[in-house]
Amino acid sequence: MTRYVIRRFLGMIAVMFTVVTIVFVIVRVAPGDPAAVMLGPDATAADIATLREKLGLDRPLILQYLYFLGQLLRGDLGQSIFLNMPVLSALAERAEPTFFLTLFSILIASAIALPVGILAAYKRGSLFDQVATTLAMLAASIPSFWLGLIFIQVFAVRFSWFPVSGYGGPDASFIVRLSHLILPATTLGIVSSALITRFTRASMLDVLNDDYVRTARSKGMGEFQVVMKHAFKNALIPVLTVIGLTAALLVSGAVVTETVFSLPGVGNLVVSAVLRRDYPVIQGALLVIAALYVLINFVIDMLYLVVDPRVRY
Amino acid sequence: MAVTSSPAIAGRPGLVSLVFQRKSLLIGLVVLGAITVFAVLAPLIAPYAPNRLSVVNRLQPPSGRWWFGTDEFGRDIFSRTIYAGQLSLLVGAAATLLAAAIGITLGLVAGFFRKADGIVARIIDAMMAFPDILLAISLVAALGPSLATVIVALGIVYAPRLARIVRASTLIIRELPYIEAARALGVPTWRIMLRHVLRNLVSPILVQATFIFAYAMLAEASLSFLGVGVSPEVPTWGTMIAAGRQYVGSADWMTLFPGIAIVLAVLSLQLVGDGLRDLLDPRLRKDL
Amino acid sequence: MVITASSGVGTGAALALPPHVQLKVEDLQTYFIQGASTVKSVDGVSFSLSRGQTLAVVGESGSGKSVTSLTIMRLLAHPGRIVGGRVLYRLRGGDVVDLAQLPEKRMRAIRGREIAMIFQEPMTSLNPLFTVGDQIMEMILLHESVSRDEARVRAKRMLELVEIPAPERRLDQYPHEMSGGMRQRVMIALALSCNPSLLIADEPTTALDVTIQAQILDLLRRLQKEIGMSILFITHNLGVVAEIAHEVVVMYAGRVVEQGLVLNVFERPRHPYTRGLLACIPDVRRDRTEGGGRRLLNAIPGNVPSALDLPTGCAFAPRCPLVVDRCRELPPLIPVSEDHLSRCWRYDDL
Ligand SMILES: Nc1ncnc2c1ncn2[C@@H]1O[C@H](COP(=O)(O)OP(=O)(O)OP(=O)(O)O)[C@@H](O)[C@H]1O
Ligand SMILES: [Mg+2]
């Protein structure tokens, strides 16, 4: 068991390291001089030289890389060019809406996907199954920004049930902020429920015909308990994986959804950084989000230990 | 998957009837075909030139004259929607081809050369750690926004998915007894292996490529919507929706129709992908 | 043993069974109906099982043995349906019910408590995510109002009963920490934990190796003596039948082809199929491996016909060495001697 944990941990570090390298490469492949691009056509040669120095672009690539690694190890993601603050602070400032948006989306997605997926598998081939499977495919085909706009049209503009956009100003109460999150979270929740539904259905189908499910029935147990306690618990492991990874990938959906709903979150920050070529911010956001993904992956591997007694090596 | 030396496509005569037996595959193909025809024949079908301005007729609701209404410059949304299909399909197809080229190469390299495998496998894993849209906009930001960079960025983003499949299959085939035997005899095995790998991979690659096509179209729309993809003046479904954003609640048709077009295109691709998976290799079927 | 050649016995009257009978299956028909195709997996099977006795059901793969047992438990998978017949069962209180007609809710109280079942695959029949103790306790808690502590004590006693060493420790182990034979013992402990009156064992030893098989059979025999339950023992191995059963039902393609006391049937089989099965075991006493069972089945030329295109008349005719014109007509179950039935026109030539 310790070996399992150590192996997974080392694996995580290795992937993390590769992620860092990829981010470094992405930002450096920019054709031309990033400093010149950032400052625009009106910049003087002196301005560009200053920025180059500030960004460390005047040093050899390998030194830049080592310096970059050193900075990261100290928890320093660099300085935003336009926001006049460290990238880490900029990200932290915008973390709250993104965190809650992701959390609520995943809750909504699971609340839809788990029951639907379980029931669809249980009634395989039935009308319910067919409708659920088709709807899941439809949900996976809808661009989240479009669904968001439709929700705004219907629920915010026509019925005025929810605010159209924003996060309620700097000193809005939690309830007000929450009301700003309902539409975006529902949008993202619906879109991401598709994958979880399909996965839940597939892993339930895998276990529903297993022998131990028949054993449970032969004990005289009710169908609900048979399905939820014996079948679903066995199907849960792959489903957990997908939910975890969906949560990590939702941050990507947040980029789009936050823009639609003008939520001042990390996604919004990234989009404006891209539009302004604020490379340190892009780089920092990429790093943090990919690291989150890798970390969630690791946590799921550890969850396996708790859920599945067979994982011990 | 099992590796046999029997012809890859057995029972070809029945292929057409097999397609007809699968309702969803058939629907997917028909809708996809219709979208393609509309896009390709846009110059013949479109009642107006996509960029014809007519300020007097701005923001007209759908009617017999403008089937999908007009936008803020009085341009006909129906005409723009079918023209936009050209670009959306082009970006999707090109990105998929690029992803296939990169992904298959990477997968083969990883599978053939033990030394390269560790690094390539790790790169694949790490690439999958980036959410697709985020990675794509970062790449576009690095490369500078243009139609070509959007295609390149999406090609890179989706390549790891194919690389994984190819690598896994190559690794299995490499261990087959007769490949090992050939290697022991000093026969250059990569030729045999390449033939085997590719033959066995036609179906899974085709299926995965269909899904990548769908994701790439969605991603392109997102990038265009965010304003970090193709220039806002170029009509794609994403830019059209972005333009309609300001008129939500007053001119809903501006966002409605391009959105439906995306949904139809992506949905039909997913139907085709699912159907192909069933058709080409029932063993691949995971009820997903 | 009470022999019913066909249905119709005792209709009309309130459900009743002779006092010594635990289970009586009458003209049971279970079909798998999907669209236009109908698989008649069980087609008019009748037998009865006395209290405290063991009835073996033998037959090749696909002859309908498992479907018969799942029908009795009412655990048929989707397209399977009981089309006709009765499954009369004596409850603990003495009442007789027809399991084929019982509502699911009442059936649930019977499963596990009155009728328990063990399966062929000990490796997969236990849930990998729960400890062995939990799985036994779950059964006890389901049917009896006892505390968890009490249930645990009972579970431990059950493990002792099936001769599992260090039961206290085993309770907290997971199935993957045990061998196949050990798991089958756990399954038996689980099945018997509520003192069922009937145990259905569907090829419980097929997946085990020879010595373990013998141990499990011995265990079942001993437990039957101690607890007094009836056993419906399903197998395709006649060697095992001789070991454990009092009576035997031989099935072929969904129908009973011969039934009677084990002694009589083994002494003088009255159906060419049974004779074929028996001829393949030189010494029944010695050869009780399932491997032996496989061998004997191969020795009869041909295969069980697909249930989809059964020949009219005797289903065994295409493989039968004694086949005559008359075999195109399906023979009834003919009483050939006391307590002995055969579905063969030429039973006297055997
Ligand atoms: N779910 C099902 N759908 C359709 N037919 C089925 C189904 N289950 C069983 N059958 C059919 O019922 C017949 C009897 O099957 P059964 O499992 O009872 O055989 P068996 O005698 O137990 O064989 P074995 O020795 O292999 O366990 C088979 O021909 C099989 O095709
Ligand atoms: Mg069976």
Automatic annotation (TrEMBL), chain A:
PROSITE patterns: ABC_TM1 (PS50928). Keywords: Cell membrane, Membrane, Transmembrane, Transmembrane helix, Transport. Residues 95-304 form the ABC transmembrane type-1 domain. Coiled coil: none annotated. One of its GO terms (biological process) is transmembrane transport. Its main location: membrane. It is a multi-pass membrane protein. It comes from the Bacteria. Belongs to the binding-protein-dependent transport system permease family. This is Peptide ABC transporter permease. It comes from Microvirga aerophila. The lineage of its organism: Bacteria, Pseudomonadati, Pseudomonadota, Alphaproteobacteria, Hyphomicrobiales.
From TrEMBL, chain B:
One of its GO terms (biological process) is transmembrane transport. Keywords: Cell membrane, Membrane, Transmembrane, Transmembrane helix, Transport. It is a multi-pass membrane protein. It comes from the Bacteria. Its main location: membrane. It is found in: Cell membrane. The chain crosses the membrane at residues 25-49, 87-113, 133-159, 201-218, 256-276. The keyword Protein transport does not apply. GO terms for cellular component: plasma membrane. Gene3D superfamilies: MetI-like (1.10.3720.10). CDD domains: TM_PBP2 (cd06261). Residues 85-273 form the ABC transmembrane type-1 domain. Belongs to the binding-protein-dependent transport system permease family. This is Peptide ABC transporter permease.
TrEMBL record, chain C:
One of its GO terms (cellular component) is plasma membrane. Residues 23-278 form the ABC transporter domain. CDD domains: ABC_NikE_OppD_transporters (cd03257). Keywords: ATP-binding, Cell membrane, Membrane, Nucleotide-binding, Transport. It is a peripheral membrane protein. InterPro entries: AAA+_ATPase (IPR003593), ABC_Ni/Peptide_Import (IPR050388), ABC_transporter-like_ATP-bd (IPR003439), ABC_transporter-like_CS (IPR017871), Oligopep_ABC_C (IPR013563), P-loop_NTPase (IPR027417). Gene3D superfamilies: P-loop containing nucleotide triphosphate hydrolases. It is found in: Cell inner membrane. This is ABC transporter ATP-binding protein.
